[in-house]
Amino acid sequence: MLLKILLLFGFVALPFGGCGQQSAEELFAAGEAAAADPASLDQAVGHFKDFLEKFDQDPKASEALNKLAALAQQQGQMQEAIAYYERVLADYPESGHGDEAQFMIAFIYEEYVRDVERARLAYQRVIDLYPNSELAASARHLLPNIGRSPEEWVEFQDRAPAQ
User: Fold this and answer.
1) Which helix (H) or strand (E) holds 74?
2) Are 149 and 112 found together in one domain?
3) For the chain, how many structural domains are there in total?
4) What is the pTM of this model?
5) Does position 8 have pLDDT exceeding 80, yes or no?
6) What is the pLDDT of residues 70-121, one digit of tens each?
7) Which single residue of 16, 63, 108, 141 has CA 20 to 30 Å from 55?
8) Is residue 143 within 8 Å of 120, Cβ to Cβ?
9) Residue 10 resides in a domain
């Protein structure tokens, strides 16, 4: 079994530079290629983790964390996804991915974890930290409706003034 796993990793790595040290671009591309196939999500996670371990100062490091967070969500690991998004905020605050990371934290708390209070705080943080972001506008719209039933949400949208 171990041999099969090693062969599989070797096969995935061959198109991107063989068995030697992979460049940042090659490792990131290998992660993206593996992420495109639902059967190889674990390999994608491995590639992105390796990328971050070796190239944590690369301009794509925050994007790699976002991809790890999305992969964790796909695999139903919501707390792990939140942790990756929190790393984006902590380690790469100037990356341009902060509003997305903060919004996704709020969304996961609301939709998956069902923690209304944490979702409210997280959406408010999007508004406070990224007031001019399109996601802040979405957060402003969602914030008053967190915890409402779908029926109430539809009624609210029907009554909302046209923009």
Assistant:
1) helix 61-74
2) yes
3) 2
4) 0.79
5) no
6) 999 999 999 999 999 999 999 999 999 999 999 999 999 999 999 999 999 9
7) 108
8) yes
9) no
Residues 89 and 132: their CA atoms lie apart, in Å, by 17
User: What range defines the domain where residue 159 resides?
Assistant: 97-163
- Say which CATH number the domain at 35 has: 1.25.40.10
Over residues 25-56, the pLDDT tens digits come to 999 999 999 999 999 999 999 999 999 999 99
Per-residue DSSP letter, 148: -
Give yes or no: residues 47 and 102 share one domain: no
**Domain stop point among 70, 93, 116:** 93
Both 102 and 152 in one domain: the answer is yes
Q: Which residues have CB under 8 Å from 23's CB, separation 6+?
A: 17
> To 10 degrees, what angle do helices 61-74 and 41-54 make?
150
Is the separation of the CB atoms in 119 and 146 below 8 Å? yes
